[in-house]
């Protein structure tokens, strides 16, 4: 097995207080997750509904699962019964569907709004203006089964550290803006999810509260 235990501790040792690790286990087998679990890791992230559903059935029940991928509205119903956070909400339609399904299960599902800041067209997420419009509409306040806990983004996949830093800092500034305007009274709106294997050490300098790390812990994914 890839040296999950050593890698996990090496990552954890690099995280300052206040930054949580979401161990991204997509495309990795249960035994890798169990190895990290045995070391105390409880929060894992997955990006495929079917794969996650299979893992949930067999792995310990006290794992907190984060859904980190692009989520199709027709699949929300499968994960809502147990998901602890849906990180990449990228449309109002998706938010409405989460509310609808979570209501059926009498749950409150934590979500993050995904921002599209990176240069790549391929990435999902709200522009700053679309995110402002969503929050300004106030519709989310009438969704008692959805709790918006913060923001998530992926920086451009480039070697240019200054570019990555600039994008993450713009997300952090945007967080401050919406926090002040819409969530000043909500102490649970506090999450800034940015930083992956190649850029998490930049992210922790850019006010990240959650890093999503896969490859550095579990090795290359086998698709
Ligand atoms: C796969 C994935 C990660 C983890 O990427 P690594 O480079 O393996 O650390 C983080 N965030 C999202 C949204 C992902 O899809």
TrEMBL record:
Name under which the protein is recorded: Pyridoxal phosphate homeostasis protein
Alanine racemase N-terminal domain residues: 6-220
Keywords carried by this UniProt record: Pyridoxal phosphate
SUPFAM superfamilies: PLP-binding barrel (SSF51419)
Record Pfam families: Ala_racemase_N (PF01168)
Protein family membership: Belongs to the pyridoxal phosphate-binding protein YggS/PROSC family.
PANTHER family per the UniProt record, alphabetical: PROLINE SYNTHETASE CO-TRANSCRIBED BACTERIAL HOMOLOG PROTEIN, PYRIDOXAL PHOSPHATE HOMEOSTASIS PROTEIN
PROSITE patterns per record: UPF0001
Record PTM N6-(pyridoxal phosphate)lysine, positions in chain: 26
Gene3D superfamilies: Alanine racemase
Domain of life per record: Bacteria
UniProt keyword annotation of Isomerase present: no
A GO molecular-function annotation: pyridoxal phosphate binding
Keyword Oxidoreductase part of the UniProt annotation: no
């Amino acid at each position: 097995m890839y040296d999950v235990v050593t890698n996990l501790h090496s990552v954890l040792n690099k995280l300052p207080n206040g930054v949580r690790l979401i161990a991204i286990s997509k495309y990795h087998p249960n035994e890798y997750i169990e190895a990290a679990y045995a070391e105390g890791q409880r929060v894992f992230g997955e990006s495929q509904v079917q794969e996650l559903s299979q893992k949930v059935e067999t792995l310990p029940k006290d794992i907190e699962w984060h859904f980190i991928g692009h989520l199709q509205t027709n699949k929300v119903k499968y994960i809502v019964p147990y998901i602890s956070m849906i990180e990449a909400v990228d449309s109002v339609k998706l938010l409405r569907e989460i509310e609808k399904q979570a209501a059926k299960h009498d749950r409150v599902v934590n979500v993050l709004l995904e921002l599209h800041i990176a240069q790549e067209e391929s990435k999902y997420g709200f522009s700053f203006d679309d995110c402002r419009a969503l929050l300004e509409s106030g519709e989310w306040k009438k969704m008692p089964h959805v709790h918006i806990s913060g923001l998530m983004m992926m920086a451009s996949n480039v070697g240019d550290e200054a570019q990555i830093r600039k994008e993450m800092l713009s997300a952090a500034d945007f967080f401050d803006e919406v926090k002040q305007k819409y969530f000043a009274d909500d102490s649970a709106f506090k999450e800034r999810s940015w930083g992956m294997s190649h850029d998490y050490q930049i992210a922790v300098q850019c006010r990240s509260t959650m890093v999503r790390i896969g490859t550095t812990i579990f090795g290359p994914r086998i698709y």
